[in-house]
Structures are given as structure tokens and as C-alpha cells.
Write a structure and sequence with these properties.
This protein has 4 helices and 30 strands. By secondary structure, the chain is mainly β. Helix 3 packs across helix 4.
């Protein structure tokens, strides 16, 4: 266990450059602006992110994205935006197939102060505040949704927090994906306590009613349990690439596997595992959630489907997502037994609602949806917290009655 005193800041636009080494550029098309892109954009991420992007048709759309990533002088930003618009127009095949319907939603979005941080995985704390991780800048942030005020707490530079979860005592816990730790932040003091793990890449975590924190480690192929009171840590091996994790109504923990066609369930005390194989071997599941009847809803990310597993019978059923096999469903939540998820392979990223009773879909384009919603959280009011990593945003979806 180690302790780090974090500092709270409101805005440092280029802090990311302190933590991310420049990537080698792939070949970009010639033209005015290429050198600026190579020097300024590729200093944070590889040029493959540009070469493989879904693109925009206008310089103003590119400019909106640039402004959420890095603070530049207007002439530089405009030159880069015009270059990108000329060479990387919108790919029509990446646009989502949106389905109309009776349900109304409102999406609010806030831009995180530190640009380029890759904001992700927002959660709601006990006091109603919204927290998120800035993975690339090794920070966690707090948002007051009533005022829009934001505060950022810097973590150890190597932490690179992947996910975040609140505890009932007001502390904020994160998975240190970059330095093999589970971290605890005290928002009142900024003090951080770290718990080293055997698994090298803690990924997603969930608190259990028994008070323990359970987590996945995707690349290590491990699951962990941490007792916050004693610091006791136990880790076990599992099938390939455990990803999302959720606590079911009966207290068992359900785990999505992104490296094999399976969902597993773990006993919280013994940590013994049982596996449910999904029939198609090409299935890869990033996240899941549990309905009130105990059925497990999941995203079949590799095949563009959503599905449900009945643990009583072991039988699963799937439906193709509206935008097709390349839609790449990613995050998922069940709200009042209705399924919500996103199509992360589309641009803009689409938010999708599926009614299991009628088996009807409805979908909306996320306003800043250049990618990607990787995790969602259901608030106490039944709202959905989302984010957009690439455009540095945290969002809240309010769901209105259809009438």
C-alpha cells in the first residue's frame, strides 16, 4: 500500500503531453496543414487514428473536435481543420441507421477541463456529483451537474485510471490500469491510497453489498477482490480477457469476456467461477447488465448484436443491432427492464433503446459522438451517464415518458 497526495485543478489544457510519449507518424496525405498535423496532433496519438477515422465533411466539424482535444491559436486550428476536411471527409458507410420511436430523451454534455485526457466511465457519487476518469492524463474529475462546476484531482502519473466506482463513505476508487494498482481517493483531502495488484492491468470494478471491491484485469486474465477495511487482496485466473463486471440481484458477480465466447458468474465468497458459453465462437462480449428477473443482457460486440442469457437454462438469444454487423455495441445498462446501449462503430456514436417486451429498437445520434461510449452508469433518478472519450465530454441522458 502506498499513499499519494493529489492536487485539485480546474484547467491545464496540454497536461497530457507530460504523460504520453510522441507516437511515430504514419504517412499522411500531402497538402497545406500536413506538417502541423504531424507536429501537433501526432504528438499525442498515432496518425492511424486520423487515417482510420470516420471523418467530417466540413472544417467547422473538424474544428469542433480539435477544440476539445488541444488548445491552439486560431490560425493553426483553422489550417489543420481545413487540411483534415479536404483529406478525410465523412465515410457514409460509418453513419448509423437511426430508428425513430415514441420515447423522448434529452442529452446534456460537459467538456472536461484538461483537454486530450480521454474522459470516460462517469459515475454518480452519494452526494449526486458526477465523477469520471481522464485516463490519458491520469486524473479523476468531479462535476456538479447543478452548476456545471468541475474539479480535477491528479493521480500518480503512471496510474492511467481505466474505470472508477464510488463507495458509500464518499471515497472514490479507480483501477490503475497503467501501474497495476487499485486506488482510493479521499475527495476532502486529495489523499490517494494505492493497493498494488498481481494483475498488471486492473480494468473495471464494482462494489458488492458485502463491502468488498471486485475487479477485472483484461490482459492478465484475472479477477480480484479487495477488502477496503483490511487491504486484503485476492486474485484468481479466469478465461481470456475479462472485461465488464456487475453484481446481480442474488449477490453473484457476472463477468463479460472479451477474449472468448463466454459469460462467467463468480461466487463472492469462494470466488469460484461457472461459465456460460455463447454458441457462436466469434462472440466477444465487452459489457453486460442484469434485469430484475435475473436474466443477463450483454453486447455481442464482435457480431453487432445484443443478447440475453437465461442463467436458469443456460440458453441465450440475440438480436442484430439496427446499424448492422459492424455497429460494435459496447456499453450497456438495463433501466426498468429496458435495455440501453451504444453502437460504438458508428459515427456519430448512436445511443440505442431496446424494449424486450415488444422487441422494438429506437436510436439517437449522440451530439458529440465521434467516439466512444465505453461504459455507462444509471443514476438514482433513472438517468444514464455517458461520455465521449475522443471529444473530451461527459454526458447525462434524461429519459422522458413517451406521451
Amino acid at each position: 500500500m502506498s499513499i499519494f497526495t493529489g492536487s485539485s485543478v480546474t484547467s491545464r489544457s496540454l497536461l497530457l503531453l507530460l504523460f504520453v510519449l510522441p507516437a511515430q507518424a504514419q504517412e499522411l496525405p500531402p497538402g497545406p496543414g500536413k506538417e502541423l498535423v504531424s507536429k501537433l496532433c501526432v504528438s499525442c496519438h498515432s496518425s492511424s487514428r486520423i487515417l482510420n477515422s470516420a471523418g467530417f465533411d466540413t472544417a467547422s466539424e473538424w474544428r469542433m473536435l480539435i477544440n476539445s482535444m488541444i488548445k491552439l491559436a486560431d490560425p493553426q486550428a483553422e489550417t489543420i481543420a481545413e487540411y483534415l476536411a479536404a483529406n478525410f471527409p465523412a465515410q457514409q458507410e460509418r453513419k448509423p441507421t437511426l430508428v425513430s420511436g415514441p420515447v423522448k430523451i434529452t442529452i446534456e454534455e460537459w467538456i472536461a477541463p484538461t483537454l486530450g485526457q480521454r474522459s470516460r466511465d462517469p459515475i454518480e457519487a452519494a452526494d449526486g456529483s458526477i465523477w469520471w476518469t481522464g485516463m490519458w492524463a491520469s486524473l479523476v474529475g468531479r462535476l456538479d451537474p447543478q452548476t456545471g462546476a468541475m474539479q480535477e484531482f491528479h493521480l500518480p502519473p503512471a496510474a492511467r485510471p481505466h474505470s472508477i466506482v464510488p463507495n458509500a463513505d464518499g471515497s472514490i476508487w479507480y483501477t490503475g490500469n497503467g501501474n497495476a494498482t487499485i486506488g482510493k481517493l479521499d475527495p476532502a483531502t486529495g489523499v490517494i491510497v494505492e493497493y498494488p495488484t498481481q494483475a498488471l492491468d486492473p480494468h473495471t470494478a464494482a462494489f458488492h453489498p458485502n463491502g468488498n471491491l471486485y475487479f477485472t484485469a483484461q490482459q492478465a486474465g484475472m479477477l480480484g477482490r479487495l477488502n477496503p477495511e483490511t487491504g486484503e487482496l485476492r486474485e484468481v485466473e479466469t478465461r481470456a480477457r475479462p472485461y465488464g463486471i456487475k453484481v446481480g440481484p442474488d449477490g453473484r458477480l457476472w463477468i463479460a469476456h472479451n477474449g472468448t465466447n463466454a459469460i462467467s458468474v463468480m461466487d463472492p465468497e469462494s470466488m469460484e467461477l461457472k461459465f456460460f458459453d455463447i454458441p457462436d465462437e466469434k462472440t466477444r462480449i465487452r459489457r453486460l447488465d442484469i434485469a430484475s428477473d435475473g436474466r443477463v443482457w450483454y453486447v455481442n460486440s464482435s457480431m453487432g448484436c445484443i443478447g440475453v442469457l437465461d442463467p436458469k437454462t443456460g440458453i441465450s438469444k440475440e438480436w442484430p443491432s439496427p446499424s448492422g454487423p459492424k455497429s460494435h455495441p459496447y456499453a450497456i445498462a438495463v433501466i426498468d427492464d429496458v435495455v440501453w446501449y451504444n453502437e460504438s462503430g458508428m459515427r456519430p456514436d448512436a445511443l440505442v433503446r431496446f424494449d424486450p417486451v415488444s422487441e422494438v429498437f429506437q436510436s439517437w445520434a449522440i451530439p458529440s459522438g465521434v467516439g466512444i461510449v465505453r461504459h455507462v452508469w444509471v443514476t438514482r433518478e433513472g438517468e444514464l451517464l455517458i461520455h465521449q472519450s475522443s471529444s473530451n465530454r461527459v454526458g447525462r441522458v434524461s429519459i422522458h415518458d413517451s406521451d
